[in-house]
Structures are given as structure tokens and as C-alpha cells.
Automatic annotation (TrEMBL):
<keyword id="KW-0812">Transmembrane</keyword>
<protein>
    <recommendedName>
        <fullName>DoxX family protein</fullName>
    </recommendedName>
</protein>
<feature type="transmembrane region" description="Helical">
    <location>
        <begin position="62"/>
        <end position="83"/>
    </location>
</feature>
<keyword id="KW-1133">Transmembrane helix</keyword>
<dbReference type="Pfam" id="PF07681">
    <property type="entry name" value="DoxX"/>
</dbReference>
<dbReference type="InterPro" id="IPR032808">
    <property type="entry name" value="DoxX"/>
</dbReference>
<dbReference type="GO" id="GO:0016020">
    <property type="term" value="C:membrane"/>
</dbReference>
<keyword id="KW-0472">Membrane</keyword>
<feature type="transmembrane region" description="Helical">
    <location>
        <begin position="117"/>
        <end position="137"/>
    </location>
</feature>
<feature type="transmembrane region" description="Helical">
    <location>
        <begin position="90"/>
        <end position="111"/>
    </location>
</feature>
Length: 150
């Protein structure tokens, strides 16, 4: 049976990976300074300030921890999706992380923000990718069938 998902899953993996990698780079100031171009945050401090608006019930130290956890998770998800390592789990993680964003964003700033930022699309894309039968051009595919000798 022909695998009709070869190219679409690769494109979806890369698009979703970049979707997670770009905000991480933004909040770390890698993409530019605050207020320039399409920079959303431009610094960790600005990112944490925004995160605090999404989580008004948490104190600042806890918001910092939650922002750090989200950043590490997004970075790992991005890298794993792009290289195709543990793709099914990374894609499922992408869906769950974005679903969490949807909930917090909707409760704190309304439904329009997650719609504007494409968070619903990213969540659905992660779920769809997690259900793909095979991940061509991935480390998963390269390692498939190889047995680790003990």
C-alpha cells in the first residue's frame, strides 16, 4: 500500500516544529529587540509579564516557573518534530501544550486571541500528526526495525 502521507507529514512536522521554535526564540530575544518588526516579546521579562496576564491566579515566582516549563517543553517539541524523533509523542505533546494555551488564553483574555494566533490550528495539527501511520524522512523511520543489542 502506498503511503500518501510522505510529503504532508514532513511538511506538517516542519511547520509545527517551526511554530513552536519561533516563539521560544522570540522570548529569548534571539529574533530581535522588543518593539521591532514582528517581535511579540523580545525578552524573557516581557514574556513573563504576558504569561502573568494569562495566569492571574498565580504569584510571580510560580508564573516564572510555568513560563520556564512551557519554554523547555516548546523547545523540545520543536526539535523533536523537526528531526523526527519520538514524533508521535512530540506531536501529541504539541497538541496538549497548545490546548493548555487555549484554555488559559480564553479564560484570561478571551477567545479571540487564541484564534488570532492560530492556537486552535496548532492543537489540531499536533493531534493529526500524532495519528499518522509513518514518519518518513525522520529519525524514527531511520531507527525503525533496528534492535539494540544488549
Amino acid at each position: 500500500m502506498e503511503d500518501k502521507f510522505r510529503i504532508p507529514q514532513l511538511l506538517l512536522r516542519c511547520a509545527l516544529g517551526i511554530t513552536f521554535l519561533t516563539p521560544v526564540c522570540d522570548r529569548l530575544g534571539i529574533l530581535g529587540k522588543p518593539g521591532t518588526g514582528n517581535i511579540e516579546w523580545g525578552s524573557w521579562e516581557n514574556f513573563i509579564n504576558y504569561t502573568a496576564t494569562l495566569m492571574p491566579i498565580f504569584n510571580r515566582p510560580l508564573v516564572n516557573i510555568m513560563g520556564s516549563i512551557a519554554t523547555v517543553a516548546e523547545l523540545l517539541i520543536a526539535v523533536f518534530l523537526i528531526i523526527g524523533l519520538k514524533t508521535k509523542y512530540a506531536a501529541l505533546g504539541a497538541s496538549l501544550v497548545t490546548l493548555t494555551f487555549i484554555v488559559f488564553m480564553t479564560l484570561s483574555v478571551g477567545i479571540q486571541k487564541p484564534i488570532n494566533y492560530g492556537v486552535f490550528t496548532a492543537s489540531a495539527a499536533g493531534l493529526l500528526l500524532s495519528l499518522m501511520p509513518n514518519y518518513n524522512w525522520s529519525l524514527d523511520n531511520l531507527f525503525k526495525g533496528r534492535k539494540i543489542k544488549e
